[in-house]
Amino acid sequence: MAGARRAPRQVVFEARDVKVSYGGKPAIAGVDVKIYGNLVTAIIGPSGCGKSTFLRSLNRLNDSVKGFTLDGQVLYRGHDVYGGGVDRVEVRRRIGMVFQKPNPFPKSIYDNIAWAPRNLGMKSDLDERVEKALRGAALWDEVKDRLRQSALGLSGGQQQRLCIARAIAIEPDVLLLDEPASALDPIATAAIEDLMHTLKRRYTIVIVTHNMQQAARVADRTAFFSLDVIDDRRVGTLVEYDDTEVIFGRAADTRTRDYVSGRFG
Ligand SMILES: Nc1ncnc2c1ncn2[C@@H]1O[C@H](COP(=O)(O)OP(=O)(O)OP(=O)(O)O)[C@@H](O)[C@H]1O
């Protein structure tokens, strides 16, 4: 089981009675959760229970979705992420995101990593910044001799580590990972999982995964979401949230036990 407990834990995110709807239809409701610093927190649950919806609400990535509304509060280090006057660019700078499908820009490896720092005016020592990010994503040794070649020539696993390097190049505080290894083969998946163990020393990581073994391998804390029927609608709710070893070994809720043992979902 991953990682030892650290005390005292820093609360990085606090969701308070969060409800997210699309076009007036609730996708998740009543979500109360605290996410702690320098841990890996996994979000698991059956398809459609709102894992990605919740993840994307942490850095306002749903804002551009037509009909999206959020009730309740999402606090990031005590600040209301949806409060008036919040700079969305700053939110995204501090809270980076990596998606399921590797999505490098059609540019060189170097320019992929340098893109966000350049845009944010972090132009000094760019070569060092690029190298540091690639080292941080355990990719440097594989690409150091071809930095000027297209990132599209990398393997899928390398592309995903490039996307992680791109995210950490601007030194965020948090990394949100939405099924980061589901499109990768087992070896590339293992590389990403190893990387998470290293990255959590520096970053707070929240990962959505369908793969329960993966959650058990990488996460310190695990949140299990499921679908509840509320007012005749199926809505995602947080069933149980605890240390990963509790969720997978001695969960309190029958629904959690059934899901992690493969009897449901
Ligand atoms: N952009 C959107 N517009 C409208 N409805 C959406 C949108 N995104 C998600 N939903 C709805 O919200 C609910 C939760 O979806 P979400 O993708 O968050 O679940 P998930 O648990 O991540 O699913 P999966 O495991 O299949 O990826 C679903 O009913 C989905 O149809």
Task: Give an overview in words.
- With 265 residues, this protein is an alpha/beta fold.
- The chain contains 10 helices and 10 strands.
- The strands form 2 sheets. A 6-stranded mixed beta sheet has the order 6-7-8-3-9-10, with helices on both faces. A 4-stranded antiparallel beta sheet has the order 2-1-4-5, with helices on one face.
- Strand 1 (11-22) and strand 2 form a beta hairpin.
- Helix 3 crosses helix 4, helix 3 (109-119) runs parallel beside helix 6 and helix 4 packs across helix 6.
How would you briefly describe this protein structure?
One of its GO terms (cellular component) is membrane. The protein has 265 residues and is α/β, with parallel strands linked by helices.
H and E order: EEEHEEHEHHHHEHEHEEHH
Distance between the termini: 23 Å
Ligand inventory: adenosine-5'-triphosphate
Strands, total number: 10
How many structural domains are formed by the residues?
Answer: 1
Largest sheet: 6 strands, mixed
Organism: Baekduia soli
GO cellular component, one term: membrane
GO molecular function: ATP binding; ATP hydrolysis activity; phosphate transmembrane transporter activity
Protein name: Phosphate ABC transporter ATP-binding protein
Task: Supply database-style keywords.
single chain, alpha/beta, Rossmann fold, 4-stranded antiparallel β-sheet, 33% helix, 28% strand, globular, binds adenosine-5'-triphosphate
Helices, strands, pairings?
Blueprint: E1 11-22, E2 25-36, E3 40-44, H1 51-57, E4 68-76, E5 79-80, H2 88-94, E6 95-98, H3 109-119, H4 126-136, H5 140-143, H6 156-168, E7 174-178, H7 186-199, E8 204-208, H8 212-218, E9 221-230, E10 233-243, H9 244-249, H10 254-260
Parallel strand pairs: 3-8, 3-9, 6-7, 7-8
Antiparallel strand pairs: 1-2, 1-4, 4-5, 9-10
Helix pairs in contact: 3-4, 3-6, 4-6, 6-7
Bound molecules: adenosine-5'-triphosphate (ATP).
Protein name: Phosphate ABC transporter ATP-binding protein
Domain ABC transporter: 13-252
Keywords: ATP-binding, Nucleotide-binding, Translocase, Transport
